[in-house]
Write a structure and sequence with these properties.
heterodimer; A: alpha+beta; 14% strand; globular; B: 5-stranded antiparallel beta sheet
Chain lengths: 456, 488
């Protein structure tokens, strides 16, 4: 299946089992880093990324009405297909691992092998909804691997043949590559363009289609209703329909305007008062977290943010995440493979996880090195505790680089287990491989063929 | 920045910040260690009066110095002041996470260094001596050696000699040190180059983000703190405490061995025609890897002809993507992965020239490096370098750069641009000249791609041409800060 879902589980840890849980997770992380065949997820063909993070108990939740959060185990995974199918895979294919990890959590029903359905139901109950971003929309793990192989094989062919091909036109070189691919039994699939089936398309773009549909229809209703006011033409049922539709559109617009104004007022108030600060992380603590980073191409980041303790901020955060959920298939962030935000309403927390190219310093800097991207950061995080105060929602804020870097490190949680299915490819590599395959079919002009050959 | 700050600055900054002392071609780099029974403050009392400031930059000889975190700690700097230094500086270049950031693993790992290894003698102070004649440099060394030995200070390793090679070249035979950022307040601003903010190099001034970099302070109630400049806030308003770091800079020091024989031998082999060396193609490929011809002429101006046009040997006013000042979006002139394109991408990144320039300006370095070791061949002609063979002599580059933020400016460039095989959407290409070249599982970094039309030319299995042989992170204090150290 070529649609991605983000699976998020949050479970409370048995305090007596915390140390055991840490040991088990460390063991599994070591197995993954050693590329052991017994490592978690090594048998799964649908998991792009996964992690476990222990969120340690908090006694001093800044500016929040809740004073205490117990030890919690966070699991996130970016998978092909439905979330429930992923959980079912876990129960069927990795029961011992599940027992070892979730046996350290409260209320775990017990042996996944013997009580599979109960364990499945229990896991499903721990699931949270999240806002999910994928940098590889429509690309299943299988397809990514196949297209990686295709790219490498064509590169090897070009390396061997480059002197002989140099005098040819771009179209001729492309023809040679097509002939090469045709001659390889295990690559012939690449000559047909990849297609996204309707289920995948609906699962990926459905929320956006629904949003556009509702907003578009209600806008049309409003226009028709206004026209009708000047030139009556509607039958009564249509008038009623367009009245409701138009009212919905007006309500949405009014809501957004009120929200915007309320947020602006809150910003002004915040500027005048001293804001809640999260105690800064010491250099030693940051060093300990960064010590876990040693991959060449990709790495990860987990952050626990707290929403500023005012209802308007919580509403804004919810709206922003709701909108991003719908728009995310249309957004592309060049270095981010997958990212997730989810709210824990009772604790007024927002948890953010990301899988990206490079190291965390360059990743965090990438969002503030360019003014245009700073505005997006301000919209997303301006309502979290410790984030530098914004102005008009998009100004200032993360323009304070030191303030932004401080809060990103304060919020960062140490990731206990991190899995990445294809660690050697960057986001742009994956995108490029897809276009390499796409360029094998159809006809091209000389210019188009030159552009396609630049992908090698 | 006010005019009064500029005047203040020239008296208070060390001379190497103004320029690399090109008129003093002979230099000695001495790494010193403060043993437990030594008196580091006493050696500072001896050295500080001789340190050359920017105001005395034209003196017939020059002395500059910098200290590591270990050195500053042994000097007795207050704990609260020490805490104000940046994390990478405090951790040191040989820290495991820093090694990860810098690509100092495998044969570049600290355990193989000549100095600065984790289990070796700690490097506490870097003393740099500049002279116009080799004899003068030797005399300076002899005189200072007597001084530091009399205070119980030890050498970490033998002093490293440096003298300029012919034509301002480095050991591979390419003119070096051409592209330098113009720093506001430190260099002449012209209408062609956008300068970077003073704080990108000097602490105590606004950086490229409009903020003051982290600056270690000394409390006003500490003795002799008034020898230091006052700390200031973002609006330039003086604060009660004093800023130890103002007019100082972080200095990155790395000894990079250059395997000249391997470099030219590999290129000769890869460009041979019917088993015969093709010198023209060999030099061309080397230039494509570098981004400039050996003379310094950039490929963006002369993509095909090995030019030594004297008007272009120092030419640096170019872009890559720009319609008139570049016209090289696809890398047909200067390959996308070439050394100069990736160490200073200009307008080449993210298919967005405006964004790219904004990014590039936030990761610049002021470089003050010099070659060490004798040239394999005096005139550094590549043809002769190839024929000479391997003489087993230690030679290379003392990479020295100055910046206000080690991680953002130096480490970022090293990890995300030099050593990343994914730079600007490449797959397996680390910097072809100075990058780490290896294959490990699915990860490869030892390929060099020359973009051509209709199809690219690729060379694989690049060996390691440059090896990291030792280094450290230093802080180069301002003149008043040096006096403060001598008063501890």
């Amino acid at each position: 299946m070529a649609f991605h879902k983000g699976v998020t589980l949050l479970t409370e840890v048995n305090p007596d089992q915390l140390e055991n849980l840490e040991k088990v997770l460390k063991e599994y992380n070591n197995q993954i880093e050693a590329e052991s065949p017994n490592a978690p997820f090594s048998q799964f063909d649908h998991v792009h990324f996964a992690r476990w993070v222990i969120l340690y108990e908090r006694q001093d939740v800044p500016c929040n009405s809740d004073d205490y959060t117990p030890h919690t185990l966070l699991y996130t995974a970016s998978v092909d297909g439905y979330e429930k199918d992923h959980l079912a895979h876990f129960v069927e294919q990795w029961p011992e691992g599940l027992d070892r990890i979730y046996g350290c959590c409260l209320d775990y029903p017990g042996s996944a092998k013997d009580h599979g359905p109960e364990v499945f139901r229990w896991l499903d109950k721990q699931r949270l909804k999240s806002t999910f971003y994928s940098g590889m929309v429509g690309l299943s793990l299988d397809q990514l691997r196949q297209e990686d192989t295709l790219h490498q094989r064509i590169q090897a062919y070009l390396d061997e043949s480059q002197e002989g091909l140099r005098a040819l036109t771009a179209i001729q070189v492309r023809n040679n590559i097509q002939d090469f691919v045709k001659s390889q039994t295990d690559l012939k699939w690449a000559l047909s363009p990849a297609k996204m089936d309707w289920t995948s398309r609906w699962q990926t773009y459905g929320p956006l289609y629904r949003l556009i549909g509702v907003l578009g229809l209600s806008a049309l209703c409003l226009i028709a209703w206004i026209v009708n006011c000047f030139t009556p033409f509607m039958p009564i049922w249509l008038y009623a329909f367009t009245s409701v539709g138009g009212a919905i559109f007006l309500f949405v617009v009014l809501f957004l305007v009120l929200l915007f104004l309320s947020m602006r007022l809150d910003e002004i108030k915040e500027k005048k008062q001293s804001t809640c600060e999260r105690p800064p992380r010491s250099d030693e603590e940051i060093a300990e977290i960064l010590g876990a980073e040693h991959a060449v191409v990709q790495t990860h980041y987990t952050a626990v943010e707290f929403t500023k303790n005012r209802m308007i901020r919580y509403i804004w955060q919810t709206v922003i995440l709701w909108v991003v959920t719908r728009l995310s298939p249309t957004i592309f962030v060049p270095t981010v493979h997958a990212a997730r935000w989810f709210q824990i309403p009772s604790k007024k927390q927002v948890i953010f996880v990301s899988n990206f190219d490079g190291d965390s310093e360059s990743y965090l800097h990438a969002f503030i090195d360019i003014s245009a991207i700073v505005r997006s950061m301000n919209l997303m995080y301006g309502s979290t505790v410790g984030f530098p105060t914004t102005r008009w929602l998009i100004r200032e804020g993360a323009n304070s680089r030191q303030g932004y870097m401080k809060v990103t490190r304060v919020a960062q949680a140490k990731t206990n287990v991190w899995f990445c299915a294809i660690p050697h490819l960057s986001v742009e590599n994956k995108k490029n491989n897809k276009m390499v395959r796409a360029g094998l079919s159809g006809t091209m002009s000389e210019q188009e063929a030159q552009a396609w050959l630049r992908r090698f | 920045m006010s005019t009064s700050n500029l005047i203040d600055m020239s008296e208070d900054i060390q001379g190497i910040l103004t320029g690399g002392y090109k008129r003093l071609p002979h230099a000695k780099y001495i790494l010193l260690h403060f043993p437990e029974n030594s008196q580091p403050v006493d050696i500072m009392k001896v050295l500080v009066p001789d340190v050359t400031s920017s105001k005395n930059w034209s003196d017939p000889q020059a002395v500059n110095l910098a200290l590591t975190y270990s050195g500053l700690k042994k000097m007795g700097l207050p704990a609260t002041t020490l805490d104000g230094f940046s994390r990478p500086f405090k951790e040191g270049m040989n820290d495991p996470h820093r090694s990860y950031m810098l690509g100092d693993f495998r044969e570049n790992a600290p355990e193989y260094w000549d100095f600065g290894a984790p289990d070796g003698k700690s490097i506490d102070l870097l003393l740099i001596l500049f002279a116009s004649q080799p004899e003068a440099a030797e005399k300076m060394l002899t005189d200072y050696q007597k001084k530091w030995e009399s205070k119980g200070v030890e050498k970490v390793s033998e002093p490293i000699d440096s003298h300029f090679l012919v034509g301002e070249k480095e050991h591979f035979g390419f003119r070096d040190g051409i592209a330098q950022p113009i720093v506001k307040g430190l260099g002449k601003v012209n209408d062609k180059t956008t300068p970077i903010e003073t704080g990108e190099v000097l602490l105590g001034y606004k950086d490229q983000y409009g903020e003051l970099p982290r600056n270690p302070e000394v409390r006003a109630d500490v003795e002799n703190s008034n020898l230091l400049p006052r700390a200031i806030d973002i609006d330039g308003k003086e604060q009660p405490d004093y800023a130890f770091g103002s007019n100082g800079t972080y200095l990155i020091f790395r000894k990079l061995f250059q395997d000249v024989h391997k470099f030219w031998h590999f290129l000769a082999h890869k460009t041979a025609v019917n088993g015969e060396t093709n010198e023209e193609m060999m030099i061309r490929m080397a230039s494509k890897m570098m981004g400039r011809w050996p003379s310094g002429v950039p490929l963006s101006k002369e993509p095909d002809k090995n030019s030594d046009d004297p008007d272009l040997t120092h030419f640096d006013d170019f872009l890559y993507v720009h319609e008139t000042h570049g016209q090289d979006k696809y890398g047909y002139k200067t390959p996308i992965g070439s050394h100069i394109r990736r160490t200073n991408p200009r307008d080449t990144l993210r298919n967005d020239p405006v964004e790219s320039l904004e990014i590039s300006q936030k990761h610049r370095l002021l470089r003050r490096g010099r070659p060490y070791g004798p040239a394999l061949v005096d005139d550094l002609d590549p043809r002769k370098l190839l024929k000479k063979g391997d003489d087993g002599v230690d030679r290379g580059l003392l990479f020295i750069s100055l910046c206000g933020d080690i991680n953002r400016q130096f480490e970022f460039t090293q990890r995300d641009w030099v050593n990343s095989p994914k730079f600007d959407d490449l797959y397996e290409d680390a910097d072809p000249v100075i990058g780490n070249h290896y294959q490990e599982g699915e990860t490869k970094t030892d390929t060099f791609t020359q973009q051509q039309c209709p199809m690219r030319k690729r060379v694989s299995n690049l060996p390691q041409f440059v090896l990291m042989k030792g280094g450290a992170y230093f802080f180069m204090p301002g003149m008043r800060a040096l006096k403060y150290l001598a008063s501890l």
